[in-house]
């Protein structure tokens, strides 16, 4: 059975996509579980804006990192889509005058 044309390209696209998702999930895991739970005692030795760093990171820092990861993922996926020619086309449909 022969492969469809472009199958290697599709596989390369999904491999790159899954690699990016894995990278983002690894960062998310380290930040939320590692810094927020496992290393909280060590981080609490440092003060950050008057709060213990471990407490601040568990409450606020991990949320900021998560938002940064969302922006990073969208930016990298747009670049990945352009590289593989599957980006969304802008249309003038539905736009006002």
SSE layout and pairing:
Layout: H1 7-38, H2 40-43, E1 47-48, E2 51-52, H3 53-84
Antiparallel strand pairs: 1-2
Helix pairs in contact: 1-3
* Rg, Å, rounded: 20 Å
H and E order: HHEEH
How much of the sequence is in beta strands? under 5%
Helix content: over 70%
Distance between the termini: 52 Å
Care to count the β-strands? 2
Largest sheet: 2 strands, antiparallel
Structural class: mainly alpha
Q: Could you name the ranges where pLDDT drops below 50 across 5 or more consecutive residues? A: none
Can you summarize this structure?
The chain is mostly helical and 97 residues long. The protein has helices at 7-38, 40-43, 53-84, and strands at residues 47-48, 51-52.
Structural overview:
The chain is mainly alpha-helical. The protein has one domain. It has 3 helices and 2 strands, in the order H-H-E-E-H. A hairpin with a 2-residue loop joins strand 1 and strand 2. The radius of gyration is 20 Å and the shape is elongated.
Task: Name its key features.
97 residues, mainly alpha, 3 helices, 2 strands
């Amino acid at each position: 059975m022969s492969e469809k044309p472009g199958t290697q390209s599709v596989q390369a696209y999904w491999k790159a996509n899954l690699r990016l998702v894995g990278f983002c999930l690894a960062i998310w895991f380290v930040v939320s579980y590692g810094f927020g739970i496992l290393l909280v005692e060590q981080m609490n030795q440092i003060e950050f804006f008057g709060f213990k760093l471990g407490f601040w990171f568990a409450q606020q820092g991990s949320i900021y990192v998560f938002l940064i990861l969302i922006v990073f993922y969208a930016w990298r996926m747009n670049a990945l889509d352009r590289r593989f020619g599957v980006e969304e086309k802008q249309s003038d449909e539905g736009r006002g005058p």
